């Protein structure tokens, strides 16, 4: 009779094998109970059982698990199983790329640095980045921006924006560096119009704005509506621009494109604020569980009709950028027939616009006629965490950096339409070295958990600057 | 050429075949060793074979079938509720996932097949706003497509007029299933279980379902999971319509105003999809 799966998954112990051996000898009429502990017979049998356990039995669980997608994760078999049975390659880890601004003070002479010659280090995380291309530092006073790539791959390198005190490890007297987030993300357009929107102003907090074209035309003729942070659309009429939308300091201007009319009814143009210094998110080697999920979704490729799993698979398997996708929600649009919303996000939250565009192109090329797929980022909701943290006075600066990093990591771990939990925030703060106590924690000024989104809205939290108050004690 | 590893000689047979008389005959300790040690080794070899065979539906132990099903997105009948599906039948269905399950993903047939196999439901109808009704004759034929019955929904007796921003007026005479006045929104469907086709075990229908209602929350959860997994991605399920008593409009398709098919006054409930 075949062994059950439940009996094959745990490893047999030496004692179990030894007991089995004693059973055979007992059946053969040997007085095993009278054999002395430490005697020759018992020692011989125990040695044989040990060899058997070390050479065969200890490998049995992983040999068993390796054939099951449910159990292969963590056994070392998953990537081979995925590659050989499902023809899926485990997504490799990728490098974070971001924009760094180098500012030269008065008196600094122009200098040229080739790729890899400049190195910066973030103070809280200690992680370093190297310039990707040639950077020419201008004569001071002046500044230049350039792309920097993480020293190593992985999501841990998605350092936050607007960090103070970034160290220019390559010492250049008179030059400082910063990673200021762009005020806005790049505009993402859906539809066939050639027009775009110019966005400006001084936005207060984190927001997303969606402009929907309600009637075709050029700027000033086309009528349009806007949705701020996922709220219902509000008509702006047939105006060319609108300022201080929603009272949050965002200005929008319709900018004509090459075609006429530039704006086509049904087009949407989306931007969020603030943007990020990151232009390509770093990601870890695809986790076994994520790979297992893709393997299961592989069955959907047998169908002639696209089901949810197929679109999840496409998004996470998009060449060069699929590894950045850690979350996918696929839902039909609530209002438009055959429109399919594919909401994606990465380890560090909203993915760069270029990543979204690449996934959009990959999915759209594999979508049936009449289906309108829209790969999009979730709306972001600014998250303000506050409270009082008590720490040792000698470690105040370090604690502030550690808390910043911990809260960024926690916020990034909250899924689309997930829940920010007070208990988790308190736990993460208390885990930091030098922290003595934490009290009065609030999320967006409320001392309660905060659940994002709904069945028709997709929201991801975006951590605002922390507003914790720090109290110190001796030590 | 590789040897057929599943038919190899056992360690016991090998040991007993050795031409060493003091080892294989008599009553010495050595003879006992020659019997016991290869027995233990054979047990381990058998376990190794079992470990490999466990991943194959026809060879898998009973408790492995659910995990093969998990990988293929199939749930054994009776695992959650409904009619029990034998292990042999489920193993066959697992093997046939290639050509009798997943090729139909995204079609009404896939939803109906899985409601039948995993929960034992018969007589379920899938209605589309644009006027088609799908049912399954059970048990399904070897080619399940031949078991799919497609009919027109009841025709509109008056034009279906839209509400803004929807624009399409649907002329009278067209088959149609009316969820609301969003006439442009034809990517919508519902699963309908009429009073006549209620599963026998549904003796305490509560909406929303609970752990003690019949159907239970788990059973309705599986219905929802089947719909979500097997519907085409851009289609929206409007609900699981359950007849509680009396007659419902449009099901059966002849059941419309003026058809002279009986009195109205039926009651129903709609589980969220």
Overview of this structure, please?
The complex is a heterodimer of chains A (475) and B (273). In chain A, strands 1, 3, 4, 6, 7, 8 and 17 form a 7-stranded antiparallel sheet that branches. Chain A has helices at residues 5-8, 14-27, 40-55, 60-65, 78-85, 288-297, 308-317, 353-364, 396-413, 422-430; strands at residues 97-104, 111-113, 119-121, 128-131, 135-137, 142-150, 167-168, 175-178, 188-190, 196-201, 207-213, 224-228, 234-237, 241-245, 250-255, 268-273, 278-280, 325-332, 339-346, 372-376, 379-383, 385-392, 419-420, 435-443, 450-451, 459-463, 467-473. Chain A is an alpha+beta fold and 475 residues long. In chain A, 40% of the residues are buried. In chain A, strand 14 (241-245) and strand 15 (250-255) form a beta hairpin. Chain B has 273 residues and is an alpha+beta fold. In chain B, 32% of the residues lie in helices and 13% in strands. Chain B contains 8 helices and 6 strands. Chain B has helices at residues 11-16, 21-24, 29-53, 62-72, 87-95, 97-101, 108-119, 217-230, and strands spanning 125-128, 132-136, 148-152, 188-193, 236-245, 267-271. Chain B has a 6-stranded mixed sheet with strand order 3-2-1-4-5-6, with helices on one face. In chain B, strand 1 (125-128) and strand 2 (132-136) form a beta hairpin. The longest helix of chain B has 25 residues, at 29-53. Chain B is elongated and about 100 Å long. The two termini of chain B are 55 Å apart. Chains A and B meet through helix 1, helix 2, helix 3, helix 4 and helix 7 of A and helix 3, helix 4 and helix 8 of B.
Q: What is the end-to-end distance of chain A?
A: 66 Å
- What is the average of the pLDDT values of chain B? 89
Shape of chain B: elongated
Strand fraction band of chain A? 25-35%
Shape of chain A: globular
Tell me the helix content of chain B. Answer: 25-40%
Count of beta strands of chain B: 6
Largest interface: A-B, 50 and 52 residues
How is the biggest beta sheet of chain B arranged?
6 strands, mixed
Q: Uncertain segments of chain B of ≥5 residues (pLDDT<50)?
A: none
If you compute it from the alpha carbons, what radius of gyration of chain B comes out, rounded to the nearest whole angstrom? 28 Å
Enumerate how many helices of chain B there are, as a single number.
Answer: 8
């Amino acid at each position: 009779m075949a062994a059950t799966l439940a009996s094959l998954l745990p490893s047999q112990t030496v004692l179990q094998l030894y007991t089995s051996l004693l059973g055979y000898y007992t059946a053969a009429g040997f007085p095993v109970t009278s054999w002395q502990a430490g005697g020759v017979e018992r020692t011989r049998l125990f040695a044989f059982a040990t060899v058997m356990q070390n050479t065969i039995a200890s490998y049995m669980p992983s040999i068993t698990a390796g054939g099951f997608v449910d159990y292969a994760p963590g056994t070392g078999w998953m990537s081979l199983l995925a590659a050989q049975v499902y023809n899926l390659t485990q997504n490799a880890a990728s490098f974070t790329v971001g924009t760094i601004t180098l500012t030269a003070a008065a008196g600094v002479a122009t200098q040229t640095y080739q790729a890899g010659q400049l190195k910066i280090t973030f103070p809280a995380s200690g992680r370093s980045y190297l310039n990707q291309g040639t950077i020419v530092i201008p004569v001071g006073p002046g500044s230049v921006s350039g792309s920097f790539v993480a020293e190593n791959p992985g999501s841990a390198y998605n350092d936050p924006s607007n960090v103070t005190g970034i160290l220019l490890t390559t010492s250049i007297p008179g030059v400082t560096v910063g990673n200021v987030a762009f005020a806005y993300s790049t505009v993402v357009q859906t539809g066939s119009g050639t027009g775009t929107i110019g966005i400006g102003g001084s936005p207060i907090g984190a927001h997303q704005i969606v402009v929907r074209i309600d009637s075709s035309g050029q700027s000033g003729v086309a009528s349009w509506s806007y949705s701020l942070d996922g709220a219902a659309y509000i008509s702006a009429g047939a105006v060319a621009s609108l300022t201080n939308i929603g009272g949050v300091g965002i200005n929008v201007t319709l900018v004509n494109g090459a075609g006429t009319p530039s704006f086509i009814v049904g087009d949407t143009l989306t931007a969020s604020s603030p943007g990020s210094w990151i232009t390509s998110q770093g990601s870890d080697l695809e986790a076994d569980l994520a790979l297992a999920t893709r393997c299961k979704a592989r069955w959907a490729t047998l169908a002639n009709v696209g089901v949810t799993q197929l679109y999840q698979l496409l998004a996470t398997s998009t060449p060069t950028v699929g590894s950045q996708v850690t979350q996918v929600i696929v839902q039909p649009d609530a209002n438009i027939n055959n429109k399919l919303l594919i909401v994606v996000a990465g380890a560090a939250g909203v993915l760069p616009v270029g990543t979204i565009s690449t996934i959009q192109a990959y999915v759209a090329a594999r979508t049936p006629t009449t289906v309108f797929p829209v790969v999009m980022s979730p709306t972001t909701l600014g998250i303000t965490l506050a409270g009082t943290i008590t720490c040792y006075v000698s470690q105040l600066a370090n604690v502030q950096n550690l808390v910043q990093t911990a809260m960024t990591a926690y916020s990034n771990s909250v899924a689309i339409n997930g829940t920010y939990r007070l208990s988790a925030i308190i736990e993460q703060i208390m885990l930091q070295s030098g922290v003595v106590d934490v009290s009065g924690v609030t999320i967006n000024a409320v001392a309660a958990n905060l659940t994002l989104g709904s069945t028709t809205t997709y929201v991801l939290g975006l951590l605002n600057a922390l507003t914790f108050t720090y109290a110190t004690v001796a030590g | 050429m590789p040897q057929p590893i599943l038919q190899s000689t056992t360690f016991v047979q090998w040991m007993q075949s050795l031409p060493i008389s003091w080892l294989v005959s008599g009553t010495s300790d050595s003879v006992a060793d020659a019997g016991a040690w290869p027995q233990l080794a054979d047990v381990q070899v058998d376990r190794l074979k079992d470990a490999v065979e466990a991943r194959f539906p026809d060879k898998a132990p009973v408790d492995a079938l659910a995990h093969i099903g998990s990988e293929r997105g199939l749930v054994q009948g009776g695992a959650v509720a409904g009619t029990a599906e034998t292990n042999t039948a489920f193993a066959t269905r697992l093997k046939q996932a290639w050509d009798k399950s997943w090729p139909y993903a995204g079609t009404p047939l896939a939803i109906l097949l899985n409601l039948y196999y995993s929960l034992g439901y018969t007589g379920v109808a899938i209605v589309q706003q644009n006027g088609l009704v799908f049912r399954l004759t059970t048990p399904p034929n070897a080619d399940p497509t031949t078991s799919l019955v497609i009919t027109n929904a009841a025709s509109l007796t008056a034009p279906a007029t839209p509400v803004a921003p929807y624009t399409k007026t649907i002329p009278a005479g067209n088959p149609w299933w009316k969820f609301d006045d969003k006439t442009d929104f034809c990517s919508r469907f519902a699963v309908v279980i009429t009073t006549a086709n209620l599963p026998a075990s549904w003796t305490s229908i509560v909406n929303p379902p609970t752990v003690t209602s019949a159907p239970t929350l788990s059973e309705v959860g599986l219905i929802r999971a089947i719909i979500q997994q097997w519907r085409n991605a851009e289609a929206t399920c409007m609900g699981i319509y359950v007849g509680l008593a009396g007659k419902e409009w449009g099901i059966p398709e002849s059941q419309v105003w003026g058809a002279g098919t009986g009195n109205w006054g039926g009651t129903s409930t709609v589980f969220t999809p």
